[in-house]
Structures
1.
Amino acid sequence: MCWHPQLRDPADEMVLETAINDQADALVTFKRRDYDAPGRFGIELLAPHEALLRIRL
């Protein structure tokens, strides 16, 4: 697959690409507004507090 930039910040591309390649269920970040692409790949975008709430359940 040919990778095309998906995010505003080029430094975040590696994070998204790794999540996609590893078939992650979610991506956890404080920088939510910088990540508008994960949903296109079936990856849920969570803030850290949201991820912690899910772990506790």
Note: The two ends are 37 Å apart (CA to CA).
2.
Amino acid sequence: MLKPIFLSLALVTPAFSDPVTTGPRPLYLIDQMDPGPLKDKLLSCAGDPVKRTAFSIGHRGAAMQFPEHTVESYIAAAQMGAGILECDVTFTSDKELVCRHAQNDLHTTTNILATDLAPTCVAGFSPADGETKASAECRTSDITLAQFRTLSGKMDAANSSATTVEDYMDGTAGWRTDLYAADGGELMTHAESIALFKSLGAKFTPELKSPAVEMPHEGFTQEDYAQKMIDEYKSAGVPASDVWAQSFNLDDVLYWIKNEPEFGAQAVYLDNSYSIDGWDPNTPASWAHQMDELKTMGVNYIAPPLWVLLTLDTDKIVPSTYAIKAREAGLNIITWTLERSGPLQSGGGWYYRSITEAIKSDGAMYEVVDVLAQEVGVAGIFSDWPATVSYYASCLGLD
């Protein structure tokens, strides 16, 4: 039997005035830092109350340890001080908006392959065979909202060497956990996320995800999709000043700027120009758009991954040319994603690729946050574990 939305957590949902609880991780990270003024400052705040802050953005909730885009994940993020929460927005076959990171990720983020809905998947489970990896693909656009509600969230992962569905679903990385996913996470519609975030005292940063189907889809155009997302905030009485609508598609951002100018004023262009061959954050001639060009289009917020904003001066982490030019053009900067790389002893992987040589341990995380906050001047940082950012922002007096 399905549990009514929020009912199972009604007694533990924090009120806006409840104290933030960051747990042991911030002090663990500080303990790993090299001695210096920043470490001393962060240690001086140990034991002080941590405030909820818009500088701390819950990336899919608290996805490092909770199934992403679930009630449980969002509540955990709010308890850690995230002042803004993210619902990535996709749509079902009956054109209802739901919170999923991608339209075609149900096979890795839910239990669909182990349910009666497995036959709806556009590509059913295929076991690993020799050098061929196990695979599947299941889309929200192939099931109705009623069917979507029967699913449970799990940690986003798949075992590519699996020969059974059970093993395929059991792929969570060792540095994450299934501890908070044992009973399955409660999935949400976009409208339900708005209601929950309001109850948590948090603001909103929905991301309109790129469809896995060709648009228009059964009469549903890209513009309809972009408009429907904004309409759900208007219907809920949420002021535009509390919403940072995001998209990797610049056309979506420009649509909001033109057709919903109040919401468009805070629309966030998720810049993925780094995927272009030859693109370099320190070589403006390689960029798809110059910063003043984006500003002229009406873009006020830009959000690249954190490595795009950083470079090395010898062994010192400093702002990249990209970061400097964005600030000079008057663009507000948001970045992603902290706490998504696992332990940093081996250089941090993709999210730290421009500064790998300076990343020797988890202690480097707060050095990165400090450069982003104090030198790049970012307006907020997405994190899979918001407590890390919340502690820093509260200690340094950031809003």
Note: Confidence is low (pLDDT under 50) at residues 1-11.
3.
Amino acid sequence: MRKEIAKNIFEVGASDWNVRNFHGYLTHYGSSYNAYLVIDEKITLIDTVKAPFGEELLERISEIIDPSKIDYVICNHVEMDHSGAMPVVMNVAKNATVITTAKAQQELQLHYDTTAWKWDIIKSGDQRKIGSRTFDFVATPMVHWPDNMVTYLEEEKMLFSNDAFGQHIAHSEIFADELPLDFVFQQAKTYYANIVMPYSPQVVNALKTVGTLDIRMICPSHGLIFRKDLDKYLSLYTDWATGKTEKKAVIVYDSMWHSTEKIAKAVAKAFENKGYQFKMFCLQSNHISDIMADCLDAEYICVGSPTLNKGMLPTVASFMTYLQGLIVKGKKGFLFGSYGWAGLSMKFMQRFFDESCIETVDTINEQFVPTKDRLNEITKQIEDKI
């Protein structure tokens, strides 16, 4: 049985200790699919779990109450890591009513056979009393699907935030303060960079609404619950959503015969000389999703590739494609590489930068092997443009 997180409120979800890939994002520490059971005059389940964990969810609920007695199932988000067990739950809790948005209802009907389900369709600002407690519902569209909402429990000052404020961490602990806080924040940052970053303008709007609530506890659908350090967590989320950068550069590259690698080191030296923090990532030994957390708050993103046939190395093309889907406006960058007889990679790399809304400060494209003197010139050239 999961811990009681407040009087008659339980976390009843499941930890997925073995998942290591989430839509191409490496989840080194697994994940959890959190669901919350609120016992009052009306028994309410907030979100469910991924389908393979449906029976585990019912077992956890059964340790507390008979699942058939559930009156309401709140669906904050339809994505299947949250709603996958809804058919199993609704088959047991045959008298339960699904509380969700109109958009989520449409999406649920496109995922499952909902013929027998009962509905209570709400909009942002609506309330529902379940006895001594009151739920407030806030629509948060495109954080990160059109159907998203968050649920606030007034009397307990608890925010059930769904994908917002989450981390991919499987855990036996339940609260963030039971683990090293820096570790939890780093996982939250990685989660934001790989999942939420494209929707930062919508997050800014959601944070304005959340800022009007008196929150004592943040209960996400992935990872750990926050009951302490809420101001710090909300401040970090604001920095990420508004695109606040540090004096930092991320240098990402792959190389065939080390020429592009040499240029990458010349670029790094320029940032070092200018007093920048920098990190270098060779794509032969670093996964693209692990790099994104550093891209989130970097001022500069620099990418290098030699020309292979008519374009980039596949590893660099993969990174650029991933970057294009995630990055927000406001970044600057340098493109660099080497070539033999046709320096075509730069054209494709430039297109990805343009479509990622990254301002290209300069490009460096060297034929074959740059000399030591030429590498020094590249360092000076970059320094002058930082």
Note: The chain is about 35% helix and 25% strand.
